[in-house]
Amino acid sequence: MIRNWLLVLPILLVHLILLTNTRFTLWPEMVVYPYLINKGFELYTEIINPYPPLFLGLLSVFGKTFGYSPNPYQLLTYSVILFIDILIFTISKKLFGIKRAFFSLLFFTLLSIPFGVNGLWFDLVQIPLLILSAYFLFQFRQNSKDVKKLFFSVLFLAVAFFIKQQVIWLIPLYIFSLYKTKHTLKFIKIVIITSPLLMLTIFHLTVFWSKGLLDQYLFWSFYFPFFKASAMPGYVLFPSLRQFLAAASLFVLFLPVALKKQTPKLFLGFSLFSVLFAYPRFDFFHLLAALSFLSLYAGPNLNDFFKAKTVVKTLCILSATVIIFQISRYFQSNWSQETRFFDADIYQASEFLKSATTKNQTVYIQNGPDQLYPLTDTLPPKPWADEFPWYLEIIGLQKEVIEGINKENPTFIVSKPAQEGEIYEIGVYRPKLIDNYIEENYKNFLQISDTLWLKIKK
User: What is the mean predicted confidence (pLDDT) over 96-117?
Assistant: First the structure.
């Protein structure tokens, strides 16, 4: 056992070396939301966001402890990634044996970075929970009398759901899996099994009801993502042809193991349903859950490749070529790059803004980098929302933002001139009412970076 883990350590070390030498993405929301929470802003009324509060609450504690610079968040991200590595190796070993587990781990190590694992976002934190949930469900299907396995499966799924709601796409797979067990559960067992989900639901509803924010919580956490967002301008983002080919090639690559009758299909089912995580806004990192489940099969898939028919081998070789191109292209463009969203220009602008403002001073950032708030210890007017069209085109929200700006009367506006492009594209979009208010009441004062201007009251 110890010898096996000693052999795993070099692969983990390779993963760390690749991670530390490629661009790390710290999405601004991962620091801005927790920072504002720690400054007393309320989710859903003063911070407009469509994500459940569980992970944001944990990040607020993390931010209060370690601050808001990228390094602690980078270490947190690497810890999650290494935990995923260990889960993939451990579960693959139990399913297919030690030799194939090594290749499964190596496969995830090489592909996870080009597929966007090197960044902190809700999707990444969900992956260990989803893998554990799927594995306990698999164990329950192996022995349907062991109801404890189903309890833990639901527990991890429930926690994942309250990190990001996209987990709901997996529910049909769970229902089908339980139906296939042909084992009738007594009512008391059903209550016990679903208790984690019920307790977390009641807890969240009670907390926001007690704050008088239940309506806002239900709207932003449930109605908006499931019913409203996809109809909002600029929100739906389909993959480019290159992205589509790379994503499709990943699945075609696993045809040998998928076509083999003896293959346990549950984790393949999870990988297919997880593709829905990439809708309605496609990005490779939304496919990380699917990649994680597929990686469990990488070892046996290589073995089955040599036994596959010629047409399957040909498709696999073509798919591997596309994926190798994707890997090489990614490493070439992201090797030894600065942290995304926290580069030298951002720090230059933050130093200037910090010298011009005082702690907790109100500043409005127009079409610019919201990460300046935690970096400069300034605050936006309430309510605050990213200048995304899918938020600010909701009827009445721009008026609320203008009322907040008017009430708190910030001395400075940090503004980024709009780029050219589609009207609702990020960086191009200008919320009409807010934009007009700023143009009428503020003027350019000083350029503080290559892309940012400081505006002051007229």
Answer: 95
